[in-house]
Design goal:
With 229 residues, the protein is of the alpha/beta class. The chain has two domains: 106 residues, Vaccinia Virus protein VP39 (Rossmann fold), CATH 3.40.50; 79 residues, no CATH class. Helix 3 crosses helix 6. The protein starts with a strand and ends in a 5-residue tail after the last strand.
């Protein structure tokens, strides 16, 4: 068995794999430095049975239409499986607190993106203290939105931003039962079961993909629903 880890950050890829190499006798590990597109290219070349672990709920950072289209891009064969994290809808205040924690962990995570942008640019375009993080939950659309907001008028790479002007960082969609069902339908899959813990924050749903209208071939995938956000 071989575990392939895909990441954009070489240092993080090396760090995470070093902690695994000595723990398993029958599992080989290999790092893949690249994007999702690079990972999909590798999947097309693999002929052995495979399982994809995608636990970070990244599918929820796409809008609901794009997420289904993205899932259809995965080249899966009959018998292949995957485990994908997807955030569930829950109390609006609970979601807001997850992204606006009292320790400021999420705020620091988001603002570190500006520091990384400076690193890539090779100069301090985003000055420390000029920007603040704002997180808001839209309960109607079922998504949390993260924004960068300048605390004063600033200029970045020749572009002017007024105090209080918002720059969208990311959206994190949450899924209720009907929205999960719609995602499966758009991704051309049929769910064959669903389990959850007593809190309803965690669940597992195996499903099979519709290869074509006349085909009886199926492949079962397991989906895990984390509860943090």
């Amino acid at each position: 068995m071989t575990y392939y880890a895909l990441d954009l950050d070489r240092d993080e890829l090396v760090r995470s794999l070093q902690g695994l190499t000595s723990k398993y006798t029958y599992v080989k590990v290999a790092g893949l430095l690249g994007t999702y597109d690079d990972g999909i290219k590798l999947l097309r070349r693999l002929t052995v049975p495979k399982t994809i672990f995608w636990l970070g709920s990244s599918v929820a950072n796409m809008d609901r239409q794009d997420s289904a289209a993205f899932l259809r891009r995965f080249p899966m064969n009959p018998g292949d499986s995957w485990v994908i994290g997807i955030d569930r809808r829950k109390d609006a205040l609970k979601v807001w607190r997850a992204y606006n924690d009292s320790q400021g962990v999420t705020r620091e995570f988001e603002l570190n993106g500006l520091r990384n942008a400076n690193k890539i640019l090779g100069r301090e375009e985003f000055k420390e203290g000029d920007w603040e993080y704002v997180g808001e939950y839209d309960a109607v659309r079922g998504r949390h939105e993260a924004w960068y907001v300048p605390v004063k008028d600033v200029t970045v790479c020749g572009m002017e931003f007024k105090e209080g002007e918002r720059v969208l960082v990311e959206r994190s969609y949450k899924y209720g039962k009907s929205e999960v069902d719609e995602l499966w339908e758009r991704a051309s899959v049929v769910e064959v079961g669903r389990w959850s813990d007593s809190s309803k924050f965690y669940g597992m749903a195996p499903f099979r993909q519709i290869l074509n209208q006349m085909s009886t071939l199926s492949r079962f995938h397991r989906f895990i629903f984390p509860a943090r956000k």
